[in-house]
Structure formats: structure tokens, C-alpha cells
Amino acid sequence: MDWEKQIIKIVLLLVSIITFGVAGLMFLEGWSFLDSLYMTVITMSTVGYREVHPLSLSGMVFVITLIVLGVGSFLYIITSLAEYVVAGHLVGALGRRRMKKEIDSLNNHYIICGFGRVGQQVAAELKREGVPCVIIDSDQNSIDRCISEGYLYIQGDASNDEVLKKAGIERVKGLVTATDSDADNVYVTLSAKNLRDDIFVVARANTEGSEHKLHKAGADRVLSPYSIGGRRLASLLLRPTVVEFLDVVMHSTEIELIMEEVLVHKNSQFVSAPMADARTRCMTGANILAIKKKGEKKMIATPSPDIIIEAGDRLVVFGTREQLKELEGLT
Q: pTM surpassing 0.90?
């Protein structure tokens, strides 16, 4: 039941009965507006006060009718409110209000559009890293999973601008669209880029032909779970030890080594310095594995010592948490 419409119906019912009572008493008894209103209210509420003025025979019949209508309307209102509370709608409304406050307080978080198998895995990885995210999905079963797993969520169409705004798209660091429909992923990407052209969008491609369309829509990265899965299976067959090492580095909570991406800021000590100089300044031993120059799509693996680092470049680094923390302080 749409409870907003139900509340409006209750208010209209009360206003209608009060208007009926006031108009009837003013017409039949010739009372003033205030006297008629007072008599109508005490009659509907059955508080038992005496009449404002003596009633005529027609007035008495009218008041009896007003009592029946008033008591009936109050019973209907009480029943509706009880159903509202018992059905959990009141608790749900309070929960949604609390969740809205939490979402509004987020900054530099991520939006995940679609909470299917892929979306759930993305959310789990972000949760493991301690990174906040907001789920958007229109399916009730997906929303129930969000509730059971403790994720912030918004139920609605992720391609709708208002839904994206509710998820805080103006403040997010990135967005993942991982629905089962390529068309939906294209629409979500277009909507996100229309609201914020600088947002980093990763899109799921379910078919080969959709990758080009998602790039055209503005997706910064397009990934196909099936092609990735196939390449990974092949790698496990050909290079099992390498894959195992990368899994340990990227996903293990027991080992200290981490592979991370670091942005070079304009005030960084690395700006205008050659790669050899940057590596020397990493006193604690963090390794710079690759560099991605600002505005370029191609990444330079094993960069030469004389390549110049500039503000806006991104470094792929490898080391312990302490080493990476020191490196981030330099960048």
C-alpha cells in the first residue's frame, strides 16, 4: 500500500467530516463558525462535553449523524495507523531516514549499480578494503540482500538522475555499473557522465559488441567478467605460481605486501624529477613498477630511469603499508 496516499486520504476524510459538521450546524442552528467548529470537534472526539447551545430536533438528528461519522472515521484512522506500525512501515521509514543521513554524510565513496553476482563481489572487495559504497538496485531481492549484509542502498533505477543524486554522485570517487543488461549499463554510464563528466566509471560488458558502445557512452574502463574469467583460467593453467602470488599480493590479509596506485600532486617532491631520482627518494624500499602519464591511456611498465614525472601522473607502486605510506607523503 502507498502510505503517503493513505495519509493524504486520512487527512482529507477528517477535513471533509469537520467541514460537513460546521456547515450543518451553522445552517440548521444558525450558530457562529467558532461555536459550530467547537461542537463538531467535541462531537467527533466523543469527549462528553455539553452542547454549546440547546439543539433543535433537526440539530439533534444531525449531531447523531455526526457522531456516527466521527466515531467511524476515528476507528478507520486507528486501524490504519495500527496496520502501518505492525507492518513495519514506521520502522522502515525511520530506517530509510537514518540511511539517507548516512549517505548524505559520505564523501569520496563509490556507487555500485546492480547488486547481482558481480555487484556483490565488488561490494565485498570494497568492504574488505574499508571503502564506503552505496548500492543502487530496483530489485527487492537485491535490496533484501543489501539489508542483511549491512550495505547502504537506494532502491530505484540507477539511470535516473535523481536516484544518482540521492546516492551522492556529486561527491563520489567512482561508479561501477554491473547490471545484467548492457543497455542498462550504457544508460547508467550516460546518466553518470551527464551529471559529472569527471567521474571515473567502470562498466560491465556482457557481450563483446557492447564494449565499444560502453566506451562511446563515456565509460573509463569496460570489463567483461567472462573474458576475464577465461584469461584467468588460462593463466592458472600456464602460470599457476604467478597467479597465486598476485592473489596473495592483491587480496591476502595475512601478508604485508600491497600493490597500490598513487597520484602525483602538484606540490609533490617528484614533480619534474626523473624516475631514477624518485626511486632513490623512496628510502624505505617501496618499488615503482609502472607509470601512467596524465591524459594518456597507455601505461608505461618498467619505466626508464630518465622518464620525467609530472603532476597528475599515476604511479603503480609495490611494498608494505609503511613503505607506501611514506611514498604517499612524498607524492
A: no
Q: What is the dihedral of CA 278, 284, 288, 289, to 10 degrees?
A: 160
Q: Cell 611514498 belongs to which residue?
A: 327
Residue of 188, 185, 106, 190 lying closest to 153 (CA atoms): 106
The tens-digit pLDDT sequence of the chain (331 residues) is: 456 677 788 888 889 999 999 999 899 988 999 988 988 888 887 776 777 888 888 888 998 898 888 888 888 888 877 776 665 555 566 667 888 899 999 999 999 999 999 999 999 989 988 899 999 999 989 998 998 998 999 999 999 999 999 999 999 999 999 999 999 999 999 999 999 999 999 999 988 788 889 999 999 999 888 888 888 788 888 888 887 777 776 666 555 677 788 888 888 888 888 888 887 777 567 788 889 888 887 888 888 888 988 988 888 888 877 777 777 777 7
- Contacts for 153 with CB less than 8 Å, ≥ 6 apart: 99, 115, 134, 135, 136, 137, 143, 146, 147
Cα 136 to its chain centre, rounded Å, is 5
